[in-house]
Amino acid sequence: MAKLKVGVLISGRGSNMAALIEAAKAADYPAEIALVVSNVADAPGVAVAGRAGIATAIVPHRGQPDRETFDRAVSAALERHGVELVALAGFLRIFSPWFPEHWKDRLINIHPSLLPAFKGLHVQQQAIDAGVRVSGCTVHWVTPDLDAGPIIAQAAVPVLADDTADSLAARILRQEHRLYPQVVRWIAEGRVATAQDGRVRVSGVPAGATLLFSTEP
Ligand code: GRF
User: Fold this and answer.
1) Biggest alpha carbon distance in the chain?
2) What pLDDT, on a 0 to 100 scale, did the predictor assign at position 189?
3) Which of 7, 55, 59, 69 is paired with 99 by a 20 to 30 Å CA distance?
C-alpha cells in the first residue's frame, strides 16, 4: 500500500523530526517523510534531515508582507511534494487562520505539556511553578486556536522535586520521541477520527494505548 506522505515543519533542533525519520525507515511503517520545511535556514534539524536523504525546503518568514503570504508559501512547498499530513515539530511560527483551515484534519502538533494545561511557551517552567506532580506531552490536531485542538494521544511523566525546566523537558522529550511516531502511524493506518463532540477516537488499538506513561526519572 502507498505510504502516507508526511511533511514536517521545524524551526530548530528537530529531534522529533529525527524520531519520525527514524521510525519511517522501517519497511512496515505506513508513512514516509516527504519533506522537511524550516523557516530558519541554519536550523540544526535541516542538516539532520539532509544527512538522512530527506528533501528540505527553507521558507524564511522574514521579508514576507504578512503571515498568510508566508503560510501560503509553506503550503505550496508541501503540496509540490505531495504532502498529505503536516506534522509540526518545534515550528516556532504562529499561523494565520488560513493555514489550519487549509490543512484541516491533516495538521498535527506535539506540545510538551498535558494539554489543556500549560499552553504557549516555557511550559515546563509553567508546570514546575504550578507544583504539578505529573506532566508530559500531547499530540493534537491543530485548529486556529493555539494549543487547543482535539487531543489524539498523550504521554505522562513524573515531575520530580528537584526538577529544573531543562531536566523536565528532557524527560518529556524522551516520551515525545515515542509518542509522535506512534500517532503518525495510527493516522496513516486510518485509525484516527474526531467525533462531533471534539473527542478523538483511535480505533483498533488496545484500550489505553493513547496514553503512554513513563516513571523513569
Ligand atoms: C518539543 O518539545 C516539542 O514538543 C515542542 O518544541 C520542541 C521541539 O523540539 N513543540 P525538537 O526540535 O523536536 O527537538
Assistant:
1) 48
2) 98
3) 55
